[in-house]
Structures are given as C-alpha cells and as structure tokens.
Amino acid sequence: MRFNSKRRSVLRPRRVHIGPMKTARAARAEAGPSADQDPRWAAVVARDPRADGIFYYSVRTTGVYCRPSCGSRRANPRNVRFHRTRSEAEHAGFRPCRRCRPDQPPIEKRRAAMVADACRAIEAAESTPDLASLARRAGLSLHHFHRTFKAVTGLTPRAYADAHRARRVRQGLRTRSTVTEAIYEAGFSSGGRFYAQSDRILGMTPSDYRAGGSRAEIRFAVGECSLGSILVARSAKGVCAILLGDDPAALVRELQDRFPRAVLRGGDAAFEETVARVVGFVDAPALGLDLPLDVRGTAFQQRVWRALREIPTGATATYSEIAARIGAPGSARAVAQACAANPLAVAIPCHRVVRQDGELSGYRWGIERKRTLLRKEGAA
Ligand SMILES: [Zn+2]
User: What's this model's pTM, rounded to 2 decimal places?
Assistant: First the structure.
C-alpha cells in the first residue's frame, strides 16, 4: 500500500527510526523548524540552478545532501536542512547525492571541460583522431561522447576536425609558398581529398582563394524597399547577400567586410531585374524567392540556415527548437549566433526565430524590421 508523503505525515507521527542510518547529529536536526519557512526552500522547489553553489540541502530520511537544482523527488520540507557549504553538510553526517553530485563541479562545467579537452586533442593531432580514442580519453562510452560533444559544440567530432583543418588551410594558403604545402600541412592526407571539399570549405578553389579571390566577382546594387535600404549581391552561383539598413553606404561597407577578396561591381541593367525581384520578395515574403542562393558559412551555420528555411511563412520557432531540429539540443546560443551571422535577410528567415517567452529578441537588421516582417506574415 502506498501513501503520498503528505498523507503519511498525518497518519504516522515522525519517528527517529524510520529511514536509513543516521548519525546522532543528523537526528538532532529534526527538532528544527520545517524548511518551508526558509526563503531557500523556494529555490529548492523551483530547482533553481542559480542557487547552486550558494547553499546545499540535506534530507534526513535519505541521508544525502543535494544542490538546489537536483532533479530528484521533492523531499518533505520537514526532513530538509540547509547548509552553507559541502563540508558543513558532510560534517552533519550526510553523503553527496549520486544524482546531482554536489561533491563535484556542476555537470555543465564537467561536460564543457571534457569537450574542450577533446577539441584540443583534435587540434593537436596530425590527422583526425578516431572517435573511440577520444571517447576513451574522456572516460565515456562512444555514443555518450558523441552526443555530449555535439550538444556542447553543435558539431560532430568529425565536423569539428574538418572545420579545424579548413581553418588551417585558410591560414596556410596565406603564408605557405604552394597550395599543396598548405593542404598537407593542414592534415589532409591527399590533395584530392581536399579539392573534393574545397568549394564547401573556402567557397572557391584554393588557387582563387590564394589569388585573393580576384576571380570571384560579385555584382551588387542598393535599392529601397518597405523596410528601408536594401543591398542585393549576386555571385556566379546565386544571390549571396541581402542586407537591410538605413544607410546605403554602410550596406556596401558590410558587403565589403563579408567578401574582402572579391571584386565588387555595381549592378548593371541586367542585374537591376534581380534586385527588383528580391525587393518584391522582401515586401511580400509569402510569394517566395525564385532565384538560386549562394549560401556561404560554416557547416554549423549552414545547418541552422537550412532549418530556418523550413519554417513556413506565418510561423515562428524558438532558438532551442531550431537547435533540437538540427540534432544539437543545448546549442541554442550557437543557433542565435548563426542567426545573427545570416547574410541573406528574409530569404533565410531568421526573423521567424523568437525567444522562448514569445518576445522577439534581437534581429540583425533591427527589431522594428523584425516586428514589421512578422506582422506582414501574420505571425505577430
Ligand atoms: Zn541530488
């Protein structure tokens, strides 16, 4: 027969011999007032992680002490005592809880330290270390390691290793005397393997990159739309930037920062038509944009941006929903950063991402523009 704890306390008076072993000191504690009279109890009820490290609480009936955020079953406040430090709780005869591990650094810190260590190992290795040895080093199972790494960085260990080598190639191409030297130095085992990915990594061939991207020509024009000034730019592959703002000159500077090595050419007559189509699309996003896009970003950014493009007109999503959709729950902050780095306003609808509480939060092109866009789409 089971009673809920409230009922049991009515039916049976508190007796010292109920529950596991207790020390004399812990037993003495029961004479104290019920914990729900203490302001700290509210933090325990809310499992507030901000209270972690400020105090600990112990439960007389189980003999353990916890962090305020512990996810274990709520204790009866009559059995709860507060302690300012771990050692105070341990001196009173309580053991650390095995769930919230109050005797160890918080789980996020341990996870972050473990992942940082794995990242350093990947960076220091000549070639990509295998997953099994990284997991062993972290003291985790293969599956758990993979999941934790992805939750913290937003990338799989392999994608992280690829991104790191790509960074090294970029640096190498600027300083090494030959392209091949730069590629091998960055840890690619063959030139072929690098060339197969170079377009994705550099957005152009290595020789073009080395030549300062001189052959990459970007045409652009600045116009006006219902949201203010708009800059539209197009590479040989497709529309590569849609920027919004109040000051046309600032938009051109932003384009230059984004494509420092490209040759920027002001739009010609043929290009004006592209601009007109983009302006029409920004003014009425529901129409859709029937132009190819040239989306350049890191592997993680690309995944976020793909997920954004799947949010239908008139709908919104939160940063953590997007993180979950791309299979990297816990990377909400990185998702927000990817939204802020979006080069294609409206075409990649980062304006459809809102905060958990429904607040609009930031928008790279100003919160008022975000509000206007959402209202236009019927989402706000
Ligand atoms: Zn606990």
Answer: 0.47
